[in-house]
Write a structure and sequence with these properties.
- The complex is a heterodimer of chains A (about 290) and B (about 400).
- Chain A has about 290 residues and is mainly α.
- Chain A has eleven helices and two strands; from the N terminus they run ααααββααααααα.
- Chain A has one domain.
- In chain A, strand 1 and strand 2 form a beta hairpin.
- Chain B has about 400 residues and is α/β, with parallel strands linked by helices.
- Chain B folds into two domains: about 220 residues, Response regulator (Rossmann fold); about 150 residues, Response regulator (Rossmann fold).
- Helix content of chain B is about 45%, strand content about 20%.
- Chain B has 13 helices and 17 strands.
- In chain B, a hairpin with a 2-residue loop joins strand 2 and strand 3.
- The longest helix of chain B is centred in the first third of the chain and has 20 residues.
- About 5% of the residues of chain B have low confidence.
- The chains are: A mainly alpha (about 290), B alpha/beta (about 400).
- Chains A and B meet through helix 1, helix 10 and helix 11 of A and strand 8, helix 7, helix 8 and helix 9 of B.
């Protein structure tokens, strides 16, 4: 075995998966930051994003990029509505909010089950073939996904950093009361923050749909991973989520390289526990204990 | 109820005499199958196959046994793929509906759970369950009309090793009982054939990203990926991701009909040239006819196990004719076991299994190795349990 090549391959695999975790986790932590709510329905919005992409591409024969864009717009609108209609009473109410989102997750799963059936469906690949750089082979479809994901993250960064709405959102994340005193209207920012958060989950779902298969229960594993990433990175901290997401992706990839997958799964949980003991407030950030 | 039985019989007899040969009696055949939940596709196909066989014999004026005509009725109950539920409906079928013949059960656990009831009451069963405990010399009323991984793995792998030069195969398997058992069986089968299952990995069923596992497996220099043991969708994902990683070797699946799903998930390009186990040869006229009549009645294509049950129901009818009775199930079971070279839609059918199970109650159904060409199976080798693949 050529260890150098294998390590390179594992790094590439890890970065691709890490980026998926990152997209999921940033949305998750944004929702928490804005609403102080642990959104257990986050994985279901990932699933809905994937199904939206599936419907638009396979049933309506739209081009993939347009389908992703439309899925995200749909997710933001749908998410804002859900926040406004369902979750409004639970803002800042962590425990009840958590239960409400678990209920929401079950409802969404079963609606998807009734609509699309239990069998996994799949999308046509967005690109064929693979590229080999320095002996490391990465499928072209994955390269596209990496490109899109990076573009989305850059856009999000620019939006949060430089647009007035983004600054308002960050102000709410920092301290909702002070933000309100300064004229930031929470009435708008709560649904918007939730909408953007789950919009990110929907993008992740839509981007991953052609790589993996699409089924009603596909959101559970990414939710678990996003949750780990967010806790590890510091709940509510976006840079923390970014670092932890990539770390978890790489860690998974390397550990699967050296040991059987079941052992690797266990090891990752152990490392996360160790990480939390070493950095109780998260890798980067303020940590919400 | 019991006290009335002789009178009822006498009345029926008198009635039969009075009305002459045109009068029909009803022969009930139970279907203890899974009609809801995960195994529903299998159970539906079993029930539908039996109904088609019954339709055919009814259309011809009924089943003619010892000069009497019987109208065959299939009484179906759902066992939900659960042992407990299966026992409940088995009791209902045996003691209330008083059936002597069962299509099913669908699963292994339900089969083992109902056998104490069916064997004791001399009720003939026809399981789809793959467990090797389903058949044994002390279960004279249990038959299996479908072949299991145990029967098909060896001949197919031997053929692949010989004809396609498979030497080092690798496989990914779900990390549960069925995955572990299949991995163990395949490893032994490859060894017997002169090849090797040199890399095997287990994963949790919800996994969708196989790239890390495949990277590790490909690094061991395997020439073939074995997909047996995985659900159809997962098999498609593994094939797709292996090709994306630049794997140029063969991809095979030596068990479980899944071609349509694999092509759907992996695409035609990836599935091109894949060697798969096929349960039926759709180019045979008898099979085409069966598929056409099934599709006409049920609006869906028959599942791969369905023809087995159509043939089994017809074999059951034939053994009743030979036994000259529909009520003496012991005699019918004996005649059924004696049938050989029965002409079914699957081809010539005989019983086997003495070596593996101690009793010849395993139907030796012919099967095939097919190559996927442009998304459809093209048969490359015809196999039988006795003679292997050619």
């Amino acid at each position: 075995m050529d260890w150098q090549l294998l390590l390179g391959q594992a790094t590439a695999n890890g970065l691709v998966v890490g980026l998926l975790y990152l997209l999921m986790a940033v949305g998750f932590t944004l929702v928490f930051g804005v609403m102080r709510m642990v959104n257990f329905a986050h994985g279901e919005f990932y699933m809905l994003g994937a199904f939206a992409a599936y419907t638009l591409v396979v049933k309506l024969s739209l081009p993939f990029l347009l389908a992703v864009a439309l899925s995200v717009v749909l997710a933001i609108v749908f998410g804002s509505l859900v926040e406004w209609l369902v979750l409004k009473p639970f803002r800042k109410d962590e425990l009840n909010g958590m239960i409400a989102t678990i209920g929401l997750a079950m409802i969404l799963q079963n609606v998807a089950l009734l609509t699309f059936g239990p069998d996994p469906v799949s999308l046509p690949p967005i690109a064929t073939g693979a590229s080999t750089v320095l002996g490391v082979t990465v499928a072209n479809s994955r390269l596209y996904v990496v490109g899109f994901a990076l573009a989305v993250l850059l856009l999000l960064y620019a939006f949060l950093r430089h647009s007035p709405v983004g600054r308002g959102l960050r102000a709410v994340v920092e301290d909702a009361d002070i933000a309100a005193i300064h004229g930031v209207r929470a009435r708008i920012y709560y649904p918007l923050g939730f909408g953007i958060g789950i919009g990110l989950a929907a993008i992740a779902g839509a981007l991953m749909a052609p790589l993996f298969s699409v089924s009603p229960f596909m959101g559970q594993t990414p939710l678990l991973k996003a949750f780990m990433v967010v806790i590890l990175g510091g709940l509510g901290s976006i840079p923390g989520a970014a670092v932890a997401g990539l770390c978890l992706g790489l860690l998974e990839s390397y550990s699967t390289l050296f040991m059987s997958s079941s052992t690797a799964d266990m090891l990752i949980f152990i490392l996360v526990v160790v990480g939390m003991l070493a950095f109780p407030r998260g890798l980067i950030g303020r940590g919400e204990a | 109820m019991k006290a009335h039985a002789p009178q009822f019989l006498a009345a029926a007899l008198l009635g039969g005499l009075a009305l002459g040969a045109s009068a029909q009696e009803t022969l009930k055949i139970g279907a203890l199958v899974t009609l809801s939940g995960p195994g529903a596709a299998w159970g539906q196909a079993m029930k539908n196959a039996a109904e088609l066989a019954a339709d055919k014999v009814n259309a011809a004026g009924g089943l003619d046994v010892a000069g009497r005509k019987y109208k065959v009725e299939i009484v179906a109950y759902d066992d939900k793929y659960q042992a407990g539920e299966a026992v409940t409906v088995a009791n209902r079928l045996v003691f209330e509906d008083k059936v002597k013949y069962l299509i099913g059960p669908t699963g292994s656990a339900p089969t083992l759970a109902v056998q104490p009831i069916t064997e004791k009451n001399q009720v003939l069963t026809s399981t789809l369950g793959f467990t090797n405990k389903a058949l044994s010399p002390d279960k004279p009323f249990s038959f299996r009309p479908v072949i299991t991984t145990y029967e098909i793995a060896d001949p197919q792998i031997a053929w692949l090793v010989k004809q396609h030069g498979v030497k080092k195969a690798g496989g990914l398997f779900p990390n549960d009982e069925s995955g572990q058992v299949i991995a163990r069986d395949l490893e032994a089968a490859y060894k017997r054939a002169g090849g090797e299952l040199s890399a095997k990995e287990f994963f949790e069923r919800e996994r969708v990203d196989f790239v890390p596992l495949l990277t590790r497996m490909l690094a061991r220099g395997i020439d073939t990926i074995e997909l047996d043991g995985n659900s159809p969708g997962t098999a498609g994902l593994i094939a797709k991701q292996a090709r994306e990683l630049g794997f140029k070797g063969k991809i095979v699946r030596t068990g479980g009909p899944a071609t349509a799903e694999i092509v759907n998930v992996a695409g035609k390009e990836v599935s091109e040239g894949m060697m798969v186990h096929a349960v039926l040869d759709a180019s045979q006229p008898a099979m085409q006819e069966y598929i056409a009549s099934y599709t006409a009645k049920y609006k869906v294509a028959p599942n791969g196990f369905s023809p087995s049950y159509y043939d089994f129901t017809n074999m059951l009818f034939e053994s009743m004719r030979r036994a000259g009775t529909v009520s003496d199930s012991a005699k019918v079971a004996q005649e059924l076991g004696k049938l050989s070279n029965f002409e079914g839609v699957l081809g010539k059918l005989s019983w086997t299994g003495k070596e593996s199970y101690g009793t010849d109650h395993q139907l030796a159904v012919p099967f095939y190795v097919a190559e996927i060409r442009n998304g459809v199976e093209v048969v490359r080798a015809r196999c039988t349990v006795a003679e292997g693949c050619k």
